[in-house]
Amino acid sequence: MWQSRPTLNAARSPGGTSRRRMFTAGAATAATLAAMATVAIGGSAQAALAPGTPLKTLAAANGNRYFGSDMTGDLVSNSNVTQLQAQQFNMLTPGNEMKWQTIEPNQNQFNFGPGDQIVQYAHANGERYRGHNLVWDSQLAGWVTQIPLNQVQAAMENHITKEVSHYATVTATMPQTPYAWDVVNEPFQESGSLKQDVFFNAMGSGYIADALRTAHAADPNAKLYLNDFNIEGMNAKSNAMFSLAQSLLAAGAPLNGIGFESHFIEGQNPSGIQANMQRFANLGLDVAVTELDDRFTSLPPSNAGLQQQATDFANTVKACLGITRCVGVTQWAIGDPDSWVPGAFSGQGAATMFDQSYAPKPAFTAVQTALGATAGNTVTVTNPGARTGTVGTATSLQISATDSAAGQTLTFSATGLPAGLTISSSGLISGTPTTNQTANVTVTARDGTNASGSASFTWTISGGSTGGTCHVTYTRNSEWPGNFTAQVVIQNTGTSAINGWSLTFTFPGDQKVTANFNGGFSMSGENATLTNASYNGTIAPGSSITDGFQGTFSSNDASPTSFAVNGTACS
Ligand code: XIL
Questions:
Q1: What is the whole-number distance in angstroms between the Cα of residue 102 and the centre of ligand 1?
Q2: 386 is in which domain, residue-wise?
């Protein structure tokens, strides 16, 4: 585990580039060049790079996952390295080029060139990319910590909007949009408390929801992630990330996934990785291994050490394969020569699947084997088509699926089911819908070798009690001493659009709203008013918006039971 990591700033050279960034073709030592020459046997490097089916092919055959690497700009013109990169990997994360320090070194002066170069490389090689990252206390431009605190929110929103908009716009020099963004990177201390960085100091914990909403507004198509290290197993930090994810989702914040960096030490993988990642997936989030490496604390590694490293890599990959919503694995480097580990942890290294000559280590073969177990099997789920149902009326639907491999038992799971319905492992969806809604349901079937297939369809539930022209659902999500968060869903059950809303209710207890996650608020005694933000004021007939808020209470936290929108009582 990575308990004693030095600060990343300490890992950087005074020039602001890491040791590994100094590995440019021009600066490579004779020994490095000689090592790379062994990769390019007979002038046909491609064939000699790594034997067997590439990791990306195996991952794609295995539940349509990706296998990625990070890469930095200094390697783009090094064809010995890029051939291996392109042979094995189909998702790219820029190592440093999209971080704040590089992108906006001075306030409102944007430097997109280095990031664009990585995007062009990815595009030319048929790879997607993960944007990394928007908000982080490390590799942050110095000016952000020098401006007055009351200007930090606007600076953060401007940074996110400009960067995300730039990469969301396809041009000749920037030919591809990102698959995902790490919106907030490493927000937690090891204890599970949020870091008291400039963003927290300026905005409190609300900076995370604000960053997500700002990124979503700039690119509604990118998957938005929170990314951190030492959250791979069950511990105080992963528990804190889990609670944060729950409250963000409850508040309607646009969070799509959690990145588990997975910077491990050989022989010290935490236990319970799969169970931990699965609990996040159960919230309806994607999960991904975003920065996998497994380092030796003393060098060179022994043969037994390399075997243990192989086991560590394979187990991490298998944990991902065991989770339907684990979308892929990224190694944080292409091979040992370009790994950040020696620069960040003195005397440590050999942390990747490829050695100093970019030759595959036992870990590479072990990962191939882990991925290959399921290659070739295909699962097809029969799409049941659009469904309808009625609030309060029991319903059931058996999902069917076929597997290309004989004798496999399929296990079903679903996301987005209408409230009140659940799916059994054998694919029977049943229950009694509880709210009017149009749900986007995705059902996945998985066989024993982890091959999977899915189908998506809509399920419209109607017929609920809709007295008046609005319906409000109030759910208290989380509570800790003196504080709580709650979600409100406002549904327009009338026939004309609501343009701008003011939701009023009275707390039966002694609660006070202290923050509305998606708009304004006021309190008068126990009478609360929540108002819309600029982006969620319109509610079309039949649709609903989800808002959330934070509050305090001293002794009585009973939930309110009657609500009005714009002065009209709701059901
Ligand atoms: C590292 C880079 O690889 C280094 O080049 C740089 O000097 C420091 O940052 N967690 C992250 C990554 O999210 O951005 C970090 O990358 C490694 C730890």
A1: 13
A2: 379-462
